[in-house]
Design a protein that fits this description.
The complex is a heterodimer. Chain A is an all-alpha fold. Helices cover 68% and strands 0% of the residues of chain A. Chain A has 9 helices and no strands. In chain A, helix 2 crosses helix 3. About 10% of the residues of chain A have low confidence. By secondary structure, chain B is mainly α. Chain B is built from 7 helices and no strands. The termini of chain B are far apart. Classes of the chains: A mainly alpha, B mainly alpha. Chains A and B meet through helix 1, helix 2, helix 6, helix 7 and helix 9 of A and helix 1 and helix 3 of B.
Chain lengths: 155, 164
């Protein structure tokens, strides 16, 4: 069901989420503030095409993601092959010295985005799947692999 | 024995179906490996969340890079400040105090004017008044005229008996 909300309401409830999400992607607070403005401009321009098959929040976050990736590399919504992405090449002996925080810093943007959406923004798997444009099963597998990788650095 | 890593992962996120939950609990009660895995996953989840919070705060409070102009201005002004401080410390003030043998230059001029005035008066009355009394002062005025703007000490004034 599509329930009507004014832009003002949406801005007051979701601008912080958009700001944090764009900060996690762009790694810059000024760029992130610009992103929030840009996202709402895009939202207003394309409001008529919103079908209502997902929540406003999810849709706004999808716009945010597209904008941020376009700004970074122009790589928005490119399908990512899991196996290639999650392969680690370095030796297990070297891994012992790396702490969890270092490992988290070394995650690529796709992995970090997933971690951020799940652990910080507390989205459900369904929402994450909608934002990233992948299936729920794919989200499950990806998160499982990221955690499996990170668990090695826990001790 | 089959381990439930994948299911634990889902359960921690609250995404495991209820039928599978009881199956997982049964397994957890028997399997030590999966128990540690379960606690590990929980701590990992919490630590990751903390990392995200910290990371976002860092990005939020990152100091802005200063522009070149401000950098140059900053260094120039600090150098100027150091130079000024150096000059202030090393420079000695011009000595302005007066010893007992010295008279201020401005007082000298005043005294000189007085003396010239006196001399003029005397010229008027030279014929009528006594010459001998003012001979000292005339000598002083003559001396003053020679000296022009040179410094006069108190001892000079005493010597020529001015103002008495």
């Amino acid at each position: 069901m599509k329930e009507e909300k004014t832009v003002k309401e949406l801005f007051s409830s979701y601008s912080d989420d958009i700001l944090n999400y764009s900060m996690s992607l762009l790694k810059d607070s000024d760029d992130a503030k610009d992103a929030v403005q840009e996202v709402f401009i895009r939202f207003i321009n394309s409001q008529s095409s919103f079908r209502g098959d997902c929540s406003y929040k999810t849709w706004l976050l999808v716009i945010t993601r597209n904008y941020c990736y376009k700004k970074l590399n122009g790589k928005a919504n490119q399908p990512v092959l899991i196996d290639e992405n999650f392969q680690r090449t370095y030796e297990p002996k070297l891994e012992e010295k790396i702490t969890l925080n270092d490992a988290l810093k070394k995650l690529n943007s796709e992995e970090f985005e997933l971690v951020y959406l799940r652990e910080y923004a507390c989205h459900s798997y369904h929402e994450i799947a909608e934002i990233l444009g992948i299936t729920v099963d794919n989200v499950k597998v990806k998160l499982f692999r990221v955690r499996e990788h990170l668990r090695k650095y826990l001790k | 024995m089959k381990h439930y890593e994948y299911e634990i992962n889902l359960f921690v996120d609250g995404e495991l179906e209820k039928e599978k939950q009881s199956e997982l609990f049964e397994h957890l009660s028997d399997c030590n490996d999966c128990q540690t895995l379960f606690t590990d996953t929980l701590t990992l989840k919490e630590k990751t969340r903390l990392f995200c919070v910290e990371n976002l705060n860092q990005i939020k409070n990152k100091p802005k890079p200063a522009s070149k102009f401000y950098k140059i201005a900053f260094y120039a002004s600090s150098a100027a400040a150091v130079l000024l401080l150096f000059l202030l410390i090393t420079a000695k003030p011009k000595e302005t105090y007066i010893t007992k043998n010295e008279v201020r230059v401005d007082t000298v001029f005043v005294e000189k004017e007085k003396a010239i005035l006196n001399e003029g008066n005397k010229k008027l009355f030279t014929n009528t008044k006594h010459k001998s009394q003012s001979s000292n002062e005339v000598a002083f005025v003559n001396e003053m005229k020679k000296m022009k703007t040179t410094k006069i000490t108190l001892s000079d004034l005493i010597k020529y008996d001015v103002g008495s």
